[in-house]
Amino acid sequence: MRQLAASRSTREEKSQRAELFRLAATRKLWHGEHQAAQAALGRMEMATRVLQPTAPRLDQKLVDRWAQVPSSVAADILAGLTVVDAAIRPLKPLSAGTRLVGLAVTALCEGTDYGPVHHAIAVAQAGDVVVVEAGARSSPAIIGELLSGSARLKGVRGLVVNGAVRDVATLREWDDFPVFTRHITPRGPSSYDRGVVNDVIALAGVKVAPGDIVLGDDDGVVIVPREEAAAKIDAALARVAAEIGWEKELLSGRSTLDVFNIPPAV
Fold first, then answer.
1. Which of 100, 126, 154, 176 is most buried when burial is the number of CB atoms within 10 A of its CB?
2. CATH number for the domain including 57?
3. Does 158 fall in a domain?
């Protein structure tokens, strides 16, 4: 009986291992579950995967129109559904009138690995924004002065990192390269052979697809889904114009109750 039970247990373990491999290979595991699977199976080395976006790039004229829209207006127009976690902040206040606006190149980093950041910079075009999901980890930094400088040199507009960065004294000097991050740490990464580039990611819980518009300013970061960008821009610009009008009316002495048609209190 003991031999039979041991044989059954061995078969069950083999079956569980096979299922973990299958799920990991098909990416049906969430990040935390994938890490647990790797711990159970032993570390599985794999090369960083770079996917090729299938949708055409949005017209630059459309992107430029969104550059006129503050993140607060974009958030309202999109019902607040694509606002990135408020804990992800710019390293320094942006210069007056400056916004981070560009098409997303996504990078998903695992653990202490930063291979996807290298590959994302390599495939990014001038005007793009590199968006990194690093699990909100406070360590290690997955980008610093050297990689950021390389991205800046080729015309990348800036970075959004749900994780950590370093070399911030230098990064803060670059007014033309805004960096939004959750954490700062001196510790660097230790591997560069995993992760994925240009896949759909959840940036701190907000869906980001390659080619979505990234819009960031001192209030935070909003993602404009590429499939909604053309349909929503007129309403966004109309709201910008309306706010200018409201400001003029308030400066003339009218009350907020009158300007915004607030119902009487009871």
1. 100
2. 3.50.30.40
3. yes
